[in-house]
Specification:
Layout (H helix, E strand, L loop, with lengths): L2 H5 L3 H6 L1 E6 L2 E7 H10 L7 E4 L6 E2 L4 H58 L9 E5 L3 E4 L70 E4 L5 E4 L3 H11 L4 H10 L5 E9 L5 E6 L8 H10 L12 E11 L1
Antiparallel strand pairs: 1-2, 1-3, 3-4, 5-11, 6-11, 7-8, 9-10, 9-11
Protein name: Outer membrane biosynthesis protein TonB
InterPro entries: MasK-like_C
Keywords: Membrane, Transmembrane, Transmembrane helix
Length: 322
């Protein structure tokens, strides 16, 4: 059978015939037409591949042979679909990798934030166990400052010695430091009693407008005392800031294994709103790292400046191990 006759045979005969095909400079085969079709769908051959029936016939492209035209079109469509599917899978893979990277960053940030929160709460937040250290705080008691003994007085460097209960000229200085205070005179027409030594008393000054924060009391010697600090404001600052002292107690507990004690504190607020004096009423803690840490934190407490007699705040911390 001649090559010309082979090319014009019916499709079945062409598919059953033996064929040679070229790949570069190589001539491979023989293969049946069915095997050529399988290689078309597998992507090994394309419509441009040259084939020839066995014999002296010349090579022609598969897409030019009637028996293979339909298969060439289907194989090309299949190749396009597979290429689009591969591109889609590649895009999805990149999106998944990007989402995984973002999730890793977010989880890392959340983990770091949780660690910081846990670290902060272990030191500052009340009501949380701090390495099994239990800290309870009493309600602050605010009174007018009393005269202090020199060895207990804390002074800021470069500042003159602070007197906590200033008296006008002519007042005797032998008054006992722990003499109890008298109850405030709340009568609207009350006036301070005059001293036997003819000292002039201070007038009753009361702030105008807003919530009153001052009052005038009379000590047992008849001297009027002007009090202008706002107890409610001081209570708010103490309540908001007292947790900053927990770090100091935690560090003291690390220095003293099994540390447990009630630590009463007394501090005086200067007229500029800064803590001017601090006492630690505990025989082993009057001075040292705990005192320095407490004072350093309390100097940051934002009290409001005021005039008149100074305020003293008594506050107690009970420290123990759970």
């Amino acid at each position: 059978m001649s090559a010309a006759q082979d090319l014009h045979d019916p499709e079945r005969e062409q598919l059953d015939s033996q064929w040679l095909y070229r790949q570069g400079d190589l001539v491979l085969g023989p293969l049946t037409g069915h095997q050529l079709v399988e290689k078309l769908y597998a992507g090994v051959l394309t419509g441009k591949t040259e084939v020839s029936a066995t014999g002296p016939s010349g090579f022609r492209k598969l897409e030019e042979l009637d028996a293979f035209k339909l298969h060439v079109s289907k194989a090309a469509a299949k190749a396009r679909v597979e290429a689009e599917a591969r591109a889609l899978r590649s895009r999805r893979m990149r999106q998944r990798l990007f989402a995984a990277g973002v999730a890793a960053v977010v989880l890392g940030g959340l983990g770091a934030g949780a660690w910081q929160i846990a670290r902060y709460s272990a030191v500052y937040l009340p009501g949380v166990e701090r390495d099994e250290l239990s800290i309870a705080v009493s309600t602050p008691v605010i009174t007018v400052a009393k005269r202090s003994t020199p060895e207990e007085l804390f002074e800021y460097p470069g500042e003159p010695k602070q007197q906590t209960a200033e008296r006008p000229p002519g007042k005797p200085t032998e008054t006992a430091p722990d003499k109890p205070e008298s109850k405030p005179d709340t009568r609207p027409d009350s006036k301070p009693e005059k001293l036997a030594s003819a000292a002039v008393s201070k007038p009753d000054r009361r702030p105008t407008g807003g919530r009153p924060s001052g009052k005038v009391t009379t000590d047992p010697d008849g001297m009027s005392t002007e009090v202008n600090y706002d107890q409610a404001a001081i209570n708010r600052v103490v309540k908001q800031s007292q947790s900053t002292l927990y770090r100091c107690f935690k560090e003291e507990a690390e220095r003293r294994p099994g540390f447990a004690a009630k630590v009463p504190l007394e501090f005086t607020i200067g007229n500029d709103g800064r803590v001017a004096q601090l006492w630690v009423d505990h025989p082993q803690l009057k001075k040292g790292p705990l005192f320095d840490c407490l004072l350093g934190e309390m100097k940051k407490w934002p009290f409001k400046p005021y005039t008149g007699e100074r305020a003293t705040v008594n506050l107690a911390f009970t420290i123990g191990k759970k």
